[in-house]
Design goal:
single chain; 82 residues; alpha+beta; 3 helices; 3 strands; 30% helix
């Protein structure tokens, strides 16, 4: 263990305690204007696409997202909006 500065702590991607997917944790840590690409191979849920998680987060917080599916079917592009 070691002490870290506030800047170092801010640079670390964090995940809330409990069962949460890596994609949801990344979405929660995004800043406005940032993008993430979720490949189809990485996505394990068959019943829920990433767009459903975006809508859930928008419903239960003040965050806004835009989720688009890649034309070639390789995955999804998620943008955090202001």
């Amino acid at each position: 263990m070691k002490k870290i500065t506030a800047e170092e702590a801010a640079a670390i991607a964090k995940k809330p305690v409990g069962r949460i997917t890596e994609a949801r944790a990344l979405m929660l840590n995004m800043k406005p204007g940032e993008f993430i690409f979720i490949s189809h191979a990485e996505w394990k849920w068959k019943s829920k696409p990433p767009s459903a998680i975006c809508r859930e987060l928008e419903k239960h917080s003040t965050l806004k997202f835009k989720c688009d599916k890649a034309l070639d079917g390789s995955g999804w592009v998620v943008e955090r909006q202001e």
